[in-house]
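Schema walk-through. Below, the input block comes first and the output block second. Nothing else is stored per chain. Lengths vary across the set, and this one has 624 residues.
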Amino acid sequence: MKNQENITLRRTIQSFLQGFQALRKDNGGMFLFFTIAAIADGVIPYVTIWFSARILEELSTLRRPEVLWRWVILTVAVTGGLEILTKLLQYAVNCGQEPFPYRRYKLLSDKCLALDYPDLENTEVRDQLAQINQYANWAGLGLTRIPLIYFNFLSHAIGTISAVVLCVGLFLTRVPASSPEMAWLDGPLGILALIAAIAVPTLIAPWLQDKVTVLSQNISFADAARQGNRVFQAFGFLSHQMHRVLDIRMYGQQKIARHYMQKENVFSADGPFARLDKGKGGALNALNAALSAVPTGAVYLFVCLKAAAGAFGIGMVTQYVGSVTALTGSIRGLLEDISLARNNALYVDLTMDFLHIPNKMYQGSLTTEKRADRQYEVEFRNVSFRYPGTTQDALHNVSVKFKVGTRLAVVGENGSGKTTFIKLLCRLYDPDAGQILLNGIDIRKYRYQDYMDIFSVVFQDFKLFSQPLGDNVAGQRQYEEAWVRNALQDAGFGERLSELPDGLNTQLYRDYTGEGVQVSGGEAQKIAIARALYKNAPFIILDEPTAALDPVAEAEIYAQFSQISGDRTAIYISHRLSSCRFCDEILVFDHGAITETGTHEGLLEQHGKYAELWNAQAQYYTEE
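--- output ---
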């Protein structure tokens, strides 16, 4: 990221408009309401000034009771009504601002779902996403700040126009001939002196504020804050994390946390932000505050001298002093809003760069055939693949063909290419060489989502939501209860389901309620399998989901799953071989290549890699 000082006004406007359009897509009505509220916020103070001036003018001159009563009643009615309107608008704006952080999260979440999977796994992309969230959490930088800038800028712009309308009479009303010694107030010298006394501090003050903002929110400070937040998240809540309690107590690890929270905390009294406030940042803020008093003093002096000369009465003094003072505040606000937008531009650009990451994987156009007989044939034809940033093929020249209804085991040691084979089969990645064919057609020609729909996968690190059981299985709030029950029954969870207090409505885990049910690792694994069965896809894949279980328990689950998979193609990926005895064919991977294929008995007779792995593990599958 470049430095804020290099951001031009044109680039600032472009960044703001890009962020504004991104948020406005689904919040157009809210921004319309923001516009109305900003206009009211800019106009209402000057309405009060104008009515107050009318009352004071009457009191200082004719003092007619009927006129005074009329102005008083109008003032109370209008200002009271406007005050109620202001509070309602302010409340509505505060409420309206709440959805915008969630809108930002939704934009990022939708982009993550739409990203090519290789980009989602890319460490640079994930770091970019982490930066976006950390900058937003630290100081509301990026898209989060767009609504605030929009509201304040529009309010200050309307306020500036309103002030000009009220104070223009100050320069048009002439000093009477009876006070010739004050005639210079109407001349160029007097007007220029007033303008200079107002303009110079008004322009310098935002410049000073901008310097403070650049100092406090520049990239180095933002990065320091981002790192500080990471450290705080890592060490600030160690004592709250139940899965760490035993280690903390046994090894006194709170000392590590105390070191980072006290000695290396960027937000401490000795940190960079505190040093900035004590030094240059504090001096600039003090100078800024002092300069803000200069325009007010100049306005009072000029207006009072002109009133003393007889140009206008006390009521107009109130109007002119109030409006000119407010004008300086509005102009300062405008300049500060521009500064805020300028300093926010880099963070908006970071977000927009993420949102505009292009999809490089071809999405395809053919509809995947929905065959009632589930007759699908998949073929890997000379497929090779290398992960980005690596120098060695994860898969090399792999060729294999299998049809629906078969039981296929994919085995091999860690790092042999098993999971990569599945990622390519599910088209999470595209091969660098060769082809993967579905019924003789390159899978890249199928519509991406249509192709994904023919697979159900239970990954090794599967996750369940802290939500009702039925929602976890169906993946949605609305579902067919009978289908969910059948899936859980087939997955071996039927008996446990009958014991649950609320059946399918039973909340899993206790993240959101103390009444949630804690399921064991084996039970969670069965729920994950039920989720795969509920999808009812023709291909179902188990990618080492039972790695945390003991070998005997794993063998029992695979045996049960072999019976319930029905006419689906079932693919088992494991470096443990308990599933292989139930399979029609076994693929043995070694260093990214298929080195052996065959049945369990046939491969044992070959005395190759499979036999070596089996003999090393056989003791776990043999009953005493």
